[in-house]
Structure formats: C-alpha cells, structure tokens
C-alpha cells in the first residue's frame, strides 16, 4: 500500500465516523423539533438530551479531523476545494457554528427546563441543512462543477443547481440521517426502558428505512449519468453494495422484532460502512475528477510518514477516551435510565 | 455589496481572517487558561477540604463551557478559512504545517471529551480526586492545542525545514519546521499570556462581586486565588516577552526595527516610547531611553541592533506597529502592578482592606488583559507584513481569487455579533438566576461565615 492509499483510507474512515456520529446528532435535532411541533415533546426529548449532552463536541472533531487530514495528505485539495467552495464552505461553517453554539447555550446555559421555540427550530433546521450542504461536496467531487480555466479555479453554480445528481445526493443524505438517527435512538430508548419513546422512535426508524434504499438506488443511477467511469468502477465492486443491502435487511428485521437492537445498530453501521467504502474505493484514484488524483497530489514522504505516526499515536488517545465516555454515559445503566445526577 | 465586491480579494481576505481571529482568540485564550484555574481551585478545595473552592471550580466550569462553545465554533471557522481564503498558502505550506495542525485536532479531541465527562460527573465518584483527574487532560489538551497552533504561526515567522523548488516544498522535515527558532518564545508567550488573561477575567468577576457589596468569605477566597495567580502569570509573561525581543533582534530584525522606529543600524541604540514621525522619519515628542534598545535586544549596551536601513523598502512592516507595541507593553506593566497592589493591600494607607479604588482597578484587569492580548497578537501579525511566510511568500500571492469574499465578510460579521451577544446574555442569566449564596445554601454549606 502506498502512502496515498494509507492516507485516503484514514481520511475515509474519519469521514465514516463523522457520518455515523453526526447523523445521530442531526436526526436527533430534527426529531426533537418535530416532537415539539406535534405535541409529544417530553416523550423523546429526554432521551435525546441525555445521549447528546456529553458528546456534542466530539461530533465536530471528526469533521475537523477529516478536513485537516485531507489538507495534510493532499495539499492540492486545499487549493481546488478551498478556492471553489468559499461560499458553500462558509455557509456550512455558519450553520455548524449556530448549531454548536446554541446547543451549548441551551444545554448548559439554562438552569430550568425552559426551551425556546426559536432554539428548537434552529436546532431542527440545521439538523437537515448541514448534512444537505456537506453532502453536495460529494456531488461536486464527481467533476463537471469545478473547472480550472486560465489559471483560475471556478465554480459553476448553474451546473451545480441544475444537476439531478446534486439533488439525488442531498435527498440521500437527509433520508440517511433520519434513518441512522432513529435506529440509534430507538435502541437507546429501549436500553433506558423508556417504552413511550421507544415506540415513537421505532416508528420513525421503520418509516425512514424504505426511503433510504430508494434514495440510494436513485443516487446510484445518477452517478451513471454524471460520471460513467465511476459507475463502472462501482459495478466492479458490486459485492460491497450487495453486502450493504443484506445488512440493511438484518437491521430492519431486528427493528421490526424490537429485539437485539444493539446488533441491529451494528448492522446499520455495516450497511453504511460497505456502501461508503464501496463508493469511496470506486471513486479512486480521484479526490476531485479530474484534477486531484491521490497518487499525484500526495504530500512528500516525510510529512506523510509523520502524519501516519501521529494518527497511530492519536488513536491511543482517542480510542480509550471513547471507551471511557461510552462506559460513563452510553452504556452506564444508571445514567441511561436517568438516575445519575445531572450536570454540575 | 457593490463596493465590497469591487474591493481587492486580498484585502478582504485579510479583513475576514482578522475578524475571525479577533473573536476566536478571546475565547481561545480563556479556553487555554481557565481550565488551569479551575484545576487550581478544585485541587485546593479537595486538598484542604474547603467546599468554597470546590464551588468556585464548579461555577467557573459552568460558565466556561459556554465560552468553550464559541471557542470551538470560531476555531472550526478559522481552520476552514485557512483553506477557503488562503488556498495557495495551504497548498504550498500545507506540506510542512499539516503535522502540527493534525496534532492539534487530537489535543482538542482529548480536551473536549474529558470536559464533557468532567461536567457530568460531579457526584459520580467516591474519591474526590477521581473527578479532579478528569480535568488534567482538559488543561493539558487545551495548552497542547495552543502549543501546536502557535508552532504554525512561528513557522510563518521563521520558515525552515524544507527547500522551495518551482513553487513546491521538497526535502520537507516536518519536525524541523515545527521546532523553528521562533517556536520557544512564541509558544511560551502565548501560553503565559493566556493564563494571565484567564486569571485576570476571574479576578475581575471576584472583585466585581465584592464591589457590589457581597460580603461572603467565598468571594474573598476567590479574589485571593485569582489575583495572586494573575500576578504570577503576568510576571512570567513579561519575562518571556523580554526573550521574545531578543528573538526578534536575532531572527526577525525587520519586525523589531519597525516596532521601535529604529531606522539606523547601530550599537548603543536607544529605546523610543511613543512619539510621532516627522516627514523624514525623525521622531518627535517620543521618550528616549539611551542604550535601552541594545540592552533589550542583546543584553548589552554595545549590541548592534539592525535598523530599517538594512531592510528592503518593499519588505518593511507598517510603522504604526510602534504604537501597538508601546500600548501592549504599558498594559502589560499594569497587569503586574494592579494585582501587586492587591497583595500589598494591608500595607497600603487607609483603613479598609478592600478600598473601592483597588476593587475598581481589579475589575479593570480583565479588559486590560484582553486589550494587551489582542494588541500583542495584532502587533505580531502586522509586524510580519508583507509576508505570509517570511522570505518565501507574500500575503498577496497567497489569497483566494474568489470574488465573493466581500459578502462572506458581511455574513461572518453578523454571525460573530450574534454569537457574542448571545453568549453574554446566556452567561449573565446563568449567574443572575443562581447566586453563589443561594447555591451554598442549597448545598448545605455553612452560610454565616461573613467577615
């Protein structure tokens, strides 16, 4: 394996981690808001809040990991994407900033149970807008939207908005967020023995499962039009997509039965894992068609080695921290069921 | 909007970066220093079994997490803006500076994850030290973050560890790039001044409460801990500042010469404070201290200080940084004197131990410290002009060519205003709703301990 391969595998794994962790968070925001609007606020809000409070900052870190690693391993990416994505990237920053800051204000700042409607609306709306916005970068990476002409990098807004592939990716992103989130929160509610919340969340999970597969198929066939080369490479890796579909069926089966939901969520992660790595693998060697090729734009050897070493050392910090936080909050029966004292 | 889009993207990119950093470093500096103060307070509380200090830590932590949120989101903002606004810089220099940036994310990760645990586990553990232990990764992680980011800034001031060939860095030695001659003084100065501004902020809060007539011993303990810390950190910052001057004299003479309006290379160079420049760069009304610049730069009156005569005209930093430097040093001196007056309060004339004027000065410590911090940062950044990477790349070569920077500038200014105003509102509500006295009563701590 070359440094370029190692680098892109690390980055892709980070982004996968972000997709899972952030989807839970984004979807939770939307479901909270939806439950306020439809009037059974308190049924699921507590579950969502108990899960999210200690981990909200962790989510952002995965995204920053990916971004810093991308610029580190493939500095050309900073140039092409940086120049072209000024507007889109800035809007994403603003949305992430609003979401993060108001989440913290509301969770740590209010001593009583008061929650303003404005806050809930911001939290719910950003929960869908951020994944929609970020996912378009995947659409852009297929080429045809960023062009280099006369030494300048240009962004074709018309092509961006009129391209059905862009929209298929946005739909897939939103639907997946709601599906992943509902699957996880239903599992978490079950663990907390909160029957009321579990029933509602299980309903959401099953409701969004069908559209997830339809949206995946839609996006899959749009790639054929957008980038036939990529599509053919996907066909070569078709076993990964078949595996993804099988794990989807396993996950839905457990959810219908309402048991083994921990295994069920692992199946959800495998479902998205196979699809994600199948998509990523067939996308190579390009990070941006046709300008950034991992073998040409990989950083120099010494920096690549240093980054890989730091990554390995970093895992020694990250993995124990995640295990610790899971034991203290996610899998601590007392905390999950709400018997532990709350924040200081 | 039309005016904005017709403006130069380079200038607009600079302004947007400045605005983001101006906001970010306020919250970042508190993010670095406040965990250390919380650690000091809780450690003292646990060690001496004094619940007042534990409550202090608890209340600080509660406010701290609100400010951390702004630090996190503005930090994400500046991180991404590095590529969005300075794509050519990142493409070229990314080969050398990716390493510390990558390390910083890990340090931040540790900080964030342990802060979450710390906040939610106040009554979880039997052994009180266990909870305290969770704070150590927070304090270490935030200081390590500051360390890594500052090495990037140091690299921009003194790039090394690569060869530039056809616009591409080759033979890159990432660790040599990280540990360049600017790194020791810059890192030490940033850390010490972050601790100073944080201690100053908490001093200000304690003094404000006493000024408001709150008499509980809790506030006096808080003031004692914070003011003494502020003094110690301010003295350390000043000492490191002196080393920074020596670094500049040796490695970045242009910045020092511009800051000191030192036009001619000479020995026995005088130090000029204040003043205005005449038409032919003669200094009027300034206070001149003979030999002082040579001593500052090289510990000897005979040290030869390089003047602006040796710097090519198009590589000269703007001369107004002289005022930034003078103002920063003056505020720095106040940051030492004010807490010192507090420490000597029993020896001061007058009967009261907490005279009103002293409390007012202590309240002023927080804005003074932040002013010094911002001035120091602006001085250092503007003093690097016209370079983004001294000797290799100028700012104008590095910026984006996009025509949308102007509207993004407006967008971000609105964002930062909204965030800062919300933050202040949330914080003031948080502490007004639940005073320390109320909380002591709720927690069954002795309340009659008035002086």
UniProtKB/TrEMBL annotation, chain A:
Question: What is the top-level taxon of the source organism?
Answer: Bacteria
Q: What is its EC number?
A: 1.10.3.-
According to the record, the segments passing through the membrane are 6-34, 55-73, 79-98, 119-145, 165-189, 201-224, 239-256, 261-279, 304-330
Entry's Gene Ontology molecular function annotations: oxidoreductase activity
Q: How does this chain sit within the bilayer?
A: Multi-pass membrane protein
Q: Does the keyword Membrane apply?
A: yes
Localization recorded for this chain is: Cell membrane
Name the major location: membrane
Record Pfam families = Cyt_bd_oxida_II
InterPro entries, alphabetized: Cyt-d_oxidase_su2
What are the entry keywords?
Cell membrane, Membrane, Oxidoreductase, Transmembrane, Transmembrane helix
Family under the similarity heading: Belongs to the cytochrome ubiquinol oxidase subunit 2 family.
Instruction: Return the protein name.
Output: Cytochrome d ubiquinol oxidase subunit II
Which source organism? Paenibacillus sediminis
TrEMBL record, chain B:
* Enzyme class label: oxidoreductase
Parts forming coiled coils: none
* PANTHER family associated with the record: CYTOCHROME BD MENAQUINOL OXIDASE SUBUNIT I-RELATED, CYTOCHROME D UBIQUINOL OXIDASE
Can you tell me where the transmembrane regions are?
A: 20-43, 64-85, 97-120, 132-156, 187-210, 222-241, 320-344, 356-379, 405-427
Q: Which Pfam families match?
A: Cyt_bd_oxida_I (PF01654)
- To which protein family does this belong? Belongs to the cytochrome ubiquinol oxidase subunit 1 family.
* Enzyme Commission code(s) on record: 1.10.3.-
Where primarily located?
membrane
**Keyword field:** Cell membrane, Electron transport, Heme, Iron, Membrane, Metal-binding, Oxidoreductase, Transmembrane, Transmembrane helix, Transport
Keyword field contains RNA-binding: no
Q: Would you tell me the protein name for this molecule? A: Cytochrome d ubiquinol oxidase subunit I
Q: Which domain of life is it from?
A: Bacteria
InterPro entries (alphabetical): Cyt-d_ubiquinol_oxidase_su_1 (IPR002585)
Topology of this chain in the membrane? Multi-pass membrane protein
Question: Does the UniProt entry include the keyword Transmembrane helix?
Answer: yes
Localization, UniProt: Cell membrane
Care to name a GO molecular-function term for this sequence?
oxidoreductase activity
């Amino acid at each position: 394996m070359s440094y370029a391969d190692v680098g892109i595998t690390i980055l892709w794994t980070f982004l996968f981690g972000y997709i899972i962790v952030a989807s839970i968070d984004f979807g939770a925001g939307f479901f909270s808001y939806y439950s306020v609007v439809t009037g059974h606020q308190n049924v699921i809000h507590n579950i969502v809040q108990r899960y999210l409070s200690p981990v909200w900052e962790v989510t952002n870190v995965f995204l920053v990991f990916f971004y810093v690693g991308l610029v580190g391993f493939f500095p050309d990416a900073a140039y092409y994407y940086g120049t072209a994505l000024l507007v889109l990237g800035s809007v994403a920053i603003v949305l992430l900033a609003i979401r993060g800051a108001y989440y913290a204000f509301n969770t740590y700042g209010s001593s009583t149970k008061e929650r303003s409607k404005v806050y809930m609306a911001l939290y719910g709306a950003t929960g869908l807008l951020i994944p929609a916005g970020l996912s378009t970068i995947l659409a852009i990476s297929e080429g045809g939207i960023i062009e280099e002409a006369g030494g300048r990098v240009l962004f074709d807004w018309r092509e961006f908005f009129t391209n059905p592939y862009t929209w298929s990716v946005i739909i897939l992103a939103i639907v997946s967020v709601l599906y992943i989130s509902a699957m996880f929160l239903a599992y978490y509610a079950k663990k907390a023995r909160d029957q009321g919340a579990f029933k509602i969340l299980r309903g959401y999970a099953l409701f969004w499962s069908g559209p997830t597969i339809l949206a995946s198929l839609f996006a899959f066939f749009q790639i054929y039009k957008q980038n036939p080369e990529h599509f053919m490479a996907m066909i070569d890796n078709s076993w990964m997509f078949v595996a993804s579909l099988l794990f989807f069926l396993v996950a839905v089966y457990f959810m219908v039965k309402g048991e083994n939901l921990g295994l069920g969520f692992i199946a959800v992660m495998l479902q998205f894992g196979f699809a994600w790595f199948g998509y990523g693998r067939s996308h190579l060697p390009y990070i941006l068609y046709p300008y950034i090729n991992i073998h040409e734009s990989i950083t120099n050897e010494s920096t690549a080695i240093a980054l890989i070493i730091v990554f390995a050392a970093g895992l020694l910090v990250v993995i124990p921290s995640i295990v610790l936080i899971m034991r203290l909050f996610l899998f601590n029966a007392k905390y999950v069921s709400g018997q532990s004292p709350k924040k200081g | 909007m039309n005016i904005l889009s017709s403006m130069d993207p380079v200038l607009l990119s600079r302004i947007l970066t400045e605005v983001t950093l101006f906001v970010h470093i306020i919250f970042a500096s508190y993010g670095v220093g406040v965990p250390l103060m919380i650690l000091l307070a809780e450690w003292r509380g646990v060690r001496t079994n004094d619940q007042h200090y534990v409550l202090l830590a608890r209340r600080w932590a509660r406010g701290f997490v609100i400010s951390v949120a702004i630090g996190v989101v503005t930090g994400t903002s500046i991180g991404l803006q590095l590529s969005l606004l300075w794509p050519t810089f990142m493409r070229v220099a990314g080969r050398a500076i990716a390493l510390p940036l990558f390390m910083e994310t890990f340090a931040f990760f540790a900080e964030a994850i342990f802060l979450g645990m710390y906040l939610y586990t106040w009554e979880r553990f039997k052994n009180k030290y266990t909870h305290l232990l969770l704070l150590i990764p927070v304090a270490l992680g935030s200081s390590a973050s500051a360390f890594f980011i500052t090495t990037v800034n140091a690299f921009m001031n003194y790039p090394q560890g690569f060869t530039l060939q056809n616009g591409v860095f080759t033979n890159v030695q990432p660790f040599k790039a990280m540990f360049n001659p600017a790194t020791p003084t810059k890192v030490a100065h940033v850390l010490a001044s972050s601790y100073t501004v944080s201690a100053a902020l908490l001093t200000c809060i304690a003094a404000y409460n006493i000024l408001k007539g709150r008499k509980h011993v809790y506030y006096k303990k808080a003031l004692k801990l914070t003011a003494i810390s502020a003094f110690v950190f301010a003295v350390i910052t000043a000492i490191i500042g002196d080393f920074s001057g020596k670094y500049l004299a040796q490695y970045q003479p242009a910045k020092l010469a511009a800051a000191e309006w030192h036009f001619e290379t000479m020995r026995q160079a005088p130090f000029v404070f204040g003043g205005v420049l005449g038409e032919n760069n003669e200094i009027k009304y300034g206070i001149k201290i003979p030999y002082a610049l040579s001593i500052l730069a090289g510990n000897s009156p005979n040290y030869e200080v390089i003047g602006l005569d040796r710097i090519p005209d198009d590589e000269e930093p703007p001369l107004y940084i002289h005022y930034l430097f003078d103002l920063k040093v003056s505020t720095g001196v106040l940051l030492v004197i004010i807490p010192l007056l507090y420490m000597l309060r029993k020896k001061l004339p007058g009967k009261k131990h907490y005279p009103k004027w002293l409390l007012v000065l202590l309240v002023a410590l927080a804005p003074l410290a932040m002013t010094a911090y911002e001035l120091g940062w602006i001085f250092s950044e503007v003093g690097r002009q016209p370079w983004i990477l001294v000797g290799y790349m100028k700012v104008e070569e590095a910026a984006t060519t996009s025509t949308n920077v102007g509207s993004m500038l407006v967008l971000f200014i609105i964002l930062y205003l909204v965030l800062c105003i919300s933050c202040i509102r949330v914080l003031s509500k948080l502490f007004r709703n639940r005073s320390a006295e109320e909380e002591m009563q709720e927690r069954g701590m002795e309340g009659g301990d008035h002086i």
